[in-house]
Amino acid sequence: MDCLFCKIAAGEIPSTKVYEDDKILAFRDIQPMAPTHILVIPKEHIPSVDGITPENSHLVAHIFTQIPKIASAEGLVNGYRVISNCGSDAGQSVPHLHFHILGGRALTLEMA
Ligand code: 5GP
Ligand code: ZN
After folding, report:
1. Average pLDDT for 96-105
2. What is the mean pLDDT of the chain?
3. Which atom of ligand 1 is nearest to the CA of 31?
4. The pLDDT of residue 89
5. Can 98 be counted among the known catalytic residues?
6. Can you give the pLDDT at residue 1?
7. pLDDT tens per residue, range 35-61
8. What angle do CA 97, 1, 7 make, to 5 degrees?
9. Atom of ligand 1 at shortest distance to CA of 28?
């Protein structure tokens, strides 16, 4: 499949990995919006939040059990934000489910 994050998950396109196991990968965003900006993806292709199903939701649960550990390892002791853009109105630019972890400074309180 011609999917950027599938290629990153497969190691065909290099990334700066911060966490990896058999199901998920976390790597640094190429265009960071905060001092710490990490993307967490399932290795399995899920197009967006809209593609989460009872069959694959265990991957999302696994991602969310790892996010606090990743944040802690990054030293985000004062907190962080987790975002997933879904669809064009949200500005999703890569159609493979991903969760942004943003932190390292006080973030703007504007949500949208
Ligand atoms: P979205 O806009 O879909 O919510 O987030 C996609 C994110 O992927 C953007 O923040 C963008 O900077 C990041 N991104 C796009 N291409 C690459 C890439 O090749 N490598 C990495 N590490 N991040 C990428
Ligand atoms: Zn994909």
Report:
1. 98
2. 98
3. 12
4. 98
5. yes
6. 76
7. 999 999 999 999 999 999 999 999 999
8. 65
9. 22
Mutate-to-test residue for ligand 1 from 88, 93, 98, highest number of ligand atoms within 8 A of CB: 93
Cβ proximity of 71 and 101 under 8 Å: yes
Q: How far is CA 49 from the centre of its chain?
A: 12
Mean pLDDT of 63-76: 98
- Within 10 angstroms of residue 36's Cβ, the number of other Cβ atoms is 20
* The residue to which tokens 């919006």 are assigned: 33
Half-sphere exposure in the Cβ direction for 70 (13 Å, CA): 30
pLDDT at 62 over 80: yes
Distance CA(7)–CA(82), nearest Å, equals: 23
Distances (CA, A) of 27 to 91, 108, 110: 20, 23, 25
How far apart, in whole angstroms, are the C-alpha atoms of residue 26 and residue 64? 12
Residue type, 25: L
